[in-house]
Amino acid sequence: MFEIIGEFFIFLGKLFTRRETPKVYWKRFIDECVTIGTDSIVIVSIVAFFIGAVTCVQTYANLVSPIIPTYVVSNVVRDMTLLELSSTFMCVVLAGKVGSNIASELGTMRISEQIDALEVMGINSASYLVLPKLLAAMFTFPLLAILSGFLGIFGGYIAGTLTGIMTPDEYIYGIRYSFIPSNVMIGIIKAFVFGFLIATISAFKGYNTKGGALEVGQSSTSAVTNSCIAVLCADYLLAELLT
Amino acid sequence: MADSHHMIEIKNIQKAFNGREILKGISGTFEKGKTSLVIGSSGTGKSVLMKCMLDLIRPETGEVLYDGRNFLTADDEMKKEIRREMGVLFQGGALFDSKTVAENVSFPLEMLTTMSRGEIKDRVVFCLERVGLADAADRMPSEISGGMKKRVGIARAIVMRPKYLFCDEPNSGLDPLTAITIDELIKEITDEFQITTVVITHDMNSVLTIGEYVMYLDKGNKLWEGNSQTVLQASVPELDEFVFSNYALKTMRDDIRSRK
Q: What is the mean pLDDT of residues B120-124?
């Protein structure tokens, strides 16, 4: 256990030593932003919209009381979405998509000797391959969290108004009521940290794959599992620290 | 200090995995302009030896000298300099899946040199023509055959004008005719550019056709060294068994013995 943690930190150190020129990283960073960020927009949008809608319907179903005003439903949808769903829940989904992608890509490169080919050219393979992924994840995850937050609240609006739970004005009133702007920032910070965790853990698992196709699959599974655990632990720590 | 004629020297290379000795003190010299072959059955440590020479695996003891420069103890700058003088053809080609054939070949030039786009393009075209793949430049690795992948691997290995060329099982998985083509290409490139070529193989056809220097490994030991002319007369039982495991050669040998 401690050996793996030590190896993980050595691996992180390798990302920042013997770096290539910024021009090399810039092109790879843009490519990775597309793979990690742009290619995740559809899944994030679908998940965020429906989770927002479900939160609205479920909250209403469990808050049936004459003394609780209806706008509380959208109030709950807003805070749930901004604080947890748009960052934590979305990042757990992204751990599955992005994490497995990173681990299997690097694992395949390892077993097919592409990483060795980079090393014998004198290129720091860890830095060349992983650093752009890490920076792209830390850049795009907060953007995806913002999108997710917006679509989650929008999903709640559509579900709430179309099913007759509340009027559009009530929903908007609840969204605005006692709004704490720093909650948006908390969601963004969380996504930033989760981006770091998912990218580094998945890359570590993939980069250190040994064996063949079976082991690539195992690395991918392990990357997703470990990333999810790390995200949830970090979520608790950040909740304690930031709220 | 090694003689400058002796381009690569290895001294007493030892490597063990989980307490199991894979290489037991291998020494040898690979000369400039010659195709040197390291042969042996599967699992004898040939690929491990090559990876030790490339410092992809760190041996427990031993030295690897490139023109007298100790690669294993060199600082980062020296190591980078030596690496730029190397070209490596990996067993499966190790082509980057996301890049076209031309991009694979141009990759080392783009990463490691300050050449202009025009110069890089010219060099890539030259290397691809040299391996007979000028018309495959825009194809993806997944769209080409195993033999073509090896040739692209060779083109990428020579694009930096290396002094040292390493080929790990260049014939594995290829049909006999394509294997001969690859062997001939390696030999031609070695002669043409006067590079020091080390080929890891268990293909007897390669041994007999391009083996200017042959080192035989068995269970981690160097049991014999010689060349393609002397390999058939070697008096090492393990080598004899390895060499004549080929049906055609075995039949030929039995035929000669029966005539005697």
A: 94
Q: Which amino acid is at A40?
A: S
How many contacts (CB atoms, under 8 Å) link A and B? Answer: 44
- Å between A118 CA and nearest CA of chain B: 9
A113 neighbourhood in chain B, CB within 8 Å: 90-92, 94
B94 touches chain A (CB under 8 A): yes
- Which of residues 112 through 131 in chain A touch B, CB cutoff 8 A? 112-114, 116-117, 119-123
The confidence score (pLDDT) of residue B1 equals 44
- Taking the CA of residue A52 as centre, how many other CA atoms within 13 Å lie in the half-sphere pointing to its CB? 33
| pLDDT tens digit sequence for A157-183 | 999 999 888 899 999 999 998 888 999
CA distance B42 to chain A (A): 17
Q: In the numeric block, which tokens belong to residue A218?
A: 């195992």
* The pair of three-digit structure tokens given for residue A28, joined into one six-digit string: 């790879």
Mean residue pLDDT of chain B comes to 88
Q: Which residues from chain B sit within 8 angstroms of residue A119, using beta carbons? A: 54, 56
Residue A158's beta-bridge partner residues? none
What kind of fold does domain B1-85+165-260 have according to CATH?
Answer: Rossmann fold (3.40.50)
Q: What is the pLDDT of residues B21-58, one digit of tens each?
A: 999 999 999 999 999 999 988 888 999 999 999 999 99
Residues 6+ apart with CB under 8 A from B203: B171, B179
Q: Look up the pTM and report it.
A: 0.86
Alpha-carbon distance of B86 to B195, in angstroms, equals: 10
Nearest-Cα residue of chain A relative to residue B82: A122
Chain B window 20-49: which residues touch A at a Cβ cutoff of 8 Å?
none
Residue B38's beta-bridge partner residues?
B200, B215
- Could you read off the pLDDT of B134-179 as tens digits, one per residue? 899 999 999 998 889 989 999 999 999 999 999 999 888 888 888 8
| Interface touch B80/A122, C-beta < 8 Å | yes
Which residues of chain B are in CATH 3.40.50.300 domains?
1-85+165-260
Per-residue pLDDT tens digits for A111-141: 999 999 999 998 899 999 999 999 999 999 9
Name residues 91-110 of chain A within 8 A of B (Cβ).
Answer: 108
**In this structure, are residues A97 and A91 in contact, taking their beta carbons and an 8 Å threshold?**
no
Residues in A touching B94 (Cβ below 8 Å): 112-114, 116-117
